[in-house]
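Hi V.,

You were right to ask for the full record rather than a summary. Here it is.
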Amino acid sequence: MIENVLYAVFAILGLGFLVFIHELGHYIVARRQGMRIEVFAIGFGKPIYSWMYQGVKWQIGILPFGGYVKIAGMHKEKGVEPSDIPDGFFGKSPWQRIKVAFAGPFVNIVFSLVVFIGLWLSGGRDKNFQEFTHHIGWIDPRSALYDQGVRPGDLIQKYSGREFGGFKDLLMSSVMNEKTTRIEGYKFDYATNEKHPFDYTLPTYADPDRKEKMSTIGVVTPAQYLIYDQKGSAQSSLESGLKSLDRFIWVDGEIVFSLQQLQSLVNDSTAFFTIRRGEQIIHTKVPRVHLDELAMSAIEKAEISDWQYEANLKSKLQDLYFIPYNLSPSAQVEGRLSFIDETDQKKAFEHCERCSYFHPLQEGDQILAIDGIRIKSSYELLDLLQTRRVLAIVERDPSIEQPVLWTESDAQFENFSFPDLSQIVSSIGTNHPIQSSGDLVLLNPMVPKPRSSLDLSSKLKAQQARDLALLKKQIERIQDPQKRNEALSEFDKTQKTLVLGLFFKDRGVRYNPTPMQQFSSVFGDTWRTLSGLLSGSMNAKFVSGPIGIVHVVHQSWKIGVHEALFWMAVISLNLGIMNLLPIPVLDGGHIVLSAYEMATRRRLSSKVMERLIIPFVGLMIALFIYITYQDIARLFSKFF
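Predicted structure:
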């Protein structure tokens, strides 16, 4: 708690510092141009502390956001035109005023560049692999992109017509109201290391998994390392043989690229079968379905009932899991069973069909093992089908703790031995299983648990209970009955979601572009945001105001000094660019008006300037209130 308060103070002081150097730029240049400074203020509102120095009233406002330098003559005084005050702002030449107006943004821009240089010289920042990878972590199976055959692990080269630089480009594109998005990249065959180019222009749609109205074409998350962290995990890893820093490579027939993909695999109601088809050993995924979903004759049900008795299963027959195939007592396939509902059949097989290890069972296939466990009879198979098990292959590489350079991180991510992986997988469920090959290790089958029944420490259990109680209260306060029921249904579904109870971390990368590359990247993002706001393709609700900025800096302090300095440089650069916009109330507006006066050799009267400035002041206040409201709403949405 004390640490959070301290970081919040640092964040506010950091923002105050950026405002201070901005106003200091105005102050120094104004003094050199012979202008009389009346007030130097950091913050707005009633001063909480003030003092006089060199004829200037210095003050700190109660609101620590923003600040200003009040130069004589910037406002009409006692019927005197501002231009008639010789040591006032408008009493000086247009060129002198341009220098004063430009000084503040210039200091902010220079500060950002100095910080970028400092970060580069110090070796850059430690970031997570997923922030910069070009590999896709998860694709929405309902999307047109998925229908085109793009899968997790494939590479993005260009997105929305621009070179792809990382996940922030996806976020930027998702807040733009674009009807279509073009994606270019490569489909990656990990068995052969071959890349096949693709280029699709697809319609965007509202991302159903986000509360905000963001668009997507189906790329949900970037790829990430799934490195097991024993300290944060709820479940014991002893039975599976899992060790700290093991990287999950393969789960239930698929190479895994993200936590979302892993969660999807864990919650697939499938089993990994080893079968003998003639002289060939085949591995395939088979759906686990409830018996009441299958159309079965009385004889077939009676036979399964006998197997239930032999396996000593106490559940009701219709509640038991089985596979949609008719089997002999020795677990040989005799035919396929029909589903009562065709929708259930499609749903049952869709998870299996996505896997490269999918071969529909055929008459005469002999089932040898399920999830790597050998069987000899159908009653053993029935018994094992009642428990969902997860097969996983991990990589044990001690060097995985060492950060890699961000430009080499994708090549490192792909660098695991597919021949070793194939050798282990091909032996699963056989008489001579291979537990390890090279750096790869096959774990013992793991049994996932519902999220609500995880074995947590007493402290975590208490915290979880408080969080769940608070969430349920928030749901119960929803006025719309339909929305309340949907929220409760989603809540119950979340609690029943199967999880392994393991905590994963991503691999660290060292991000250290040159100062100009970093400067250009931030400038480009700022320009895209401004262009989107002005064109209407981006909603202002996604822009952060003072509260959002403080929150970002606060979070960056938690990561480290380098991260905090980076975000201060980003904010400083944005502050400089925003103030140069040709809006009368901003520094850029003063520059434009002064340039107009230089070109026309005509001074603008105070009345004309008031008519230009006052409407924009009102718009700026309205925008400030709106953005601040969105900042607060975003903060509260993280808790509820």
